[in-house]
Structure to design on (120 residues):
C-alpha cells in the first residue's frame, strides 16, 4: 500500500503564489509518473500537471506558464509551484503517483487532497 500526503494548500489573493507538496511512502518499488489534479465544486477532476521520472513535464493549458511541477525522486516527492493564481484556480488539489508496488503489482495512488482557495 502506498500513501500520498499533500500539504501547502490555503487561502491566497489573486495574483499570489502557493507551493503544494506531496510525499509518497509505503511499499514502493518504483514511481514512474507523479502529478497533480484538481476538482472544483460541481466539476469533474481534471489534470493540472504531470512529471515523469526523467523530468518530462505536461501541463494543462489553463496553468501553462504559471505553474511548475518539480520533483525529488530521492524523496518520492512532487511539488506544485503555483504563481499568478486566479479565482478559477480554486479547487481541491490531489496528488497522484503511477508505478509499481514492492510486490511488482501496478500502483496508482491518490492523496486525500488539499484545498486551494483564491480570492478575487
Amino acid at each position: 500500500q502506498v500513501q500520498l500526503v499533500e500539504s501547502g494548500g490555503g487561502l491566497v489573493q489573486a495574483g499570489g503564489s502557493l507551493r503544494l507538496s506531496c510525499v509518497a511512502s509505503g511499499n514502493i518499488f518504483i514511481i514512474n509518473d507523479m502529478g497533480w489534479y484538481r476538482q472544483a465544486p460541481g466539476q469533474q477532476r481534471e489534470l493540472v500537471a504531470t512529471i515523469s521520472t526523467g523530468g518530462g513535464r505536461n501541463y494543462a493549458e489553463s496553468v501553462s506558464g504559471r505553474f511548475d511541477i518539480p520533483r525529488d525522486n530521492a524523496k518520492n516527492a512532487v511539488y506544485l509551484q503555483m504563481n499568478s493564481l486566479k479565482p478559477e484556480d480554486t479547487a481541491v488539489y490531489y496528488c497522484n503517483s503511477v508505478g509499481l508496488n514492492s510486490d511488482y503489482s501496478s500502483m496508482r495512488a491518490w492523496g486525500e487532497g488539499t484545498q486551494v482557495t483564491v480570492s478575487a
